[in-house]
Design brief:
The chain is built from 19 helices and two strands. It is mainly alpha-helical and 380 residues long. It binds iron/sulfur cluster (SF4) (2 copies).
């Protein structure tokens, strides 16, 4: 089979943050030292070779970039300062854009104008909805407080309407993400046409997907164990918040001020703590640049951290203002919260940084399927 080389691939990859990749002279130290590289799934050296040669098809069907958790051990030991860890990170951005069929991922990763424009448009739509659409249906700002002295959030942002919107947004995001995952599956498992995997293997190995999503055990194989913990808190806080807001909004967005130890509040406090802890480690790390994994930041890394931080801060403000009866401050915080949250979810989950939350566990699952793949029967 002939391999098609595409020299223009280099220029495309540079747009996704790849720096001096030609520094690599293939000593193989990075692959030898990588705690996650294994027989049959070796990286990062061979991926750098494919990038240098422009072997596009093989790169796009690789599962290995997602098996790297960016511990930075390879970068530390590279004698040529080729930064293999960051090369793998840039490759993941490129692959994200290849799984996405809409072309938006590529636009967001390679153009700050596109990403900022998208954020501003959706933020403006959210503000318009709160200022004009909901009042048109009779929902208004009110300074009249509840019997407990709290703000009537549901008087201006009724949970029933917000939930319908949440469900619609979740459905759009889920459809986009699922379609991207199917494309990832096709590229990694089916495209080469040489092997096949039985249905039973798909079912039997499915637990790996759930296990890797919840526990993220591959992180713990890296030398620096601390980051696993902060990343896990961030991920669990985000997931809990997403579930309570999208699935249990009636229970979560009440006008009643519940006791401090009520599950509604403790769950919210835990999720907030998890998010703040993870964000603190990531932001301070990127400012100080002491850890290898934080030394190089793409625009999309900062944009994601800033948007998530603002979402958490406005969420905290809503809570503080609401239980203290500060009506206008609550309403303004609520609108600001939604104006940041909505574009963040719409960009980050299907098209950008946050999609790795799905791609990583799926990659471990697909890796396992590949291990059990058998040659396809030939008709000839
Ligand atoms: S990236 Fe560095 S360590 Fe890895 S093969 Fe190239 S030169 Fe060697
Ligand atoms: S960053 Fe860590 S996991 Fe990724 S290739 Fe390098 S050593 Fe392996």
């Amino acid at each position: 089979m002939s391999v098609r080389l595409q020299p223009e691939l280099r220029n495309q990859l540079i747009q996704f943050g790849i720096g001096d990749w030609n520094a690599c002279y293939h000593c193989g130290t990075c692959t030898a030292i990588c705690p996650l590289s294994e027989k049959g799934f070796l990286f990062p050296r061979n991926k750098i070779r494919l990038m240098q040669m422009g072997v596009k098809d093989e790169l796009e069907t690789s599962v290995e970039p997602w098996l790297c958790y960016y511990c930075g051990d390879c970068t530390k030991s590279c004698p040529r300062d080729a930064n293999p860890g960051e090369l793998m990170m840039s490759l993941r951005r490129y692959l994200t854009s290849k799984y996405d069929w809409t072309g938006l991922s590529r636009k967001f990763y390679t153009s700050g104008v596109w990403e900022l424009g998208f954020i501003l448009v959706f933020a403006a739509l959210v503000v318009i909805a709160f200022l004009f659409l909901l009042p048109a249906y009779g929902f208004k700002f009110t300074t009249e407080l509840t019997a407990q002295g709290g703000v009537q959030v549901n008087a201006f942002a009724p949970w029933e309407y917000i939930e319908i919107f949440d469900w619609s947004m979740a459905a759009v995001v889920a459809l986009l993400l699922i379609s991207n995952i199917l494309r990832m599956y096709y590229k990694i498992i089916w495209k080469d046409g040489k092997t096949t995997v039985s249905i039973w293997t798909h079912i039997r190995e499915f637990w790996l997907l759930i296990y890797n999503f919840v526990v993220q055990p591959r992180f713990s194989k890296c030398e620096d164990k601390n980051y696993w913990l902060s990343h896990w808190f961030l991920m669990s806080g985000y997931t809990i918040m997403f579930i309570v807001i999208v699935v249990y909004l009636e229970w979560f967005q009440t006008d009643e001020i519940l006791p401090f130890w009520h599950p509604q509040r403790t769950l919210g406090y835990y999720a907030t703590f998890g998010l703040l802890f993870g964000l603190f480690v990531a932001i301070i790390g990127r400012i100080r640049k002491k850890r290898i994994k934080f030394q190089f930041s793409h625009v999309s890394d900062w944009l994601f951290l800033i948007m998530l931080t603002l979402t958490v801060i406005t969420g905290i403000l809503i809570h503080i203002f609401r239980i203290n009866g500060m009506a206008w401050a609550t309403y303004i915080s609520y609108i600001a919260h939604m104006a940041i949250l909505v574009p963040m979810i719409l960009i980050e989950v299907p098209f950008s940084k946050w999609s790795h939350l799905a791609y990583r566990p799926f990659a471990v699952y697909f890796q396992q399927l590949k291990k059990h793949a058998v040659p396809r029967k030939s008709n000839q």
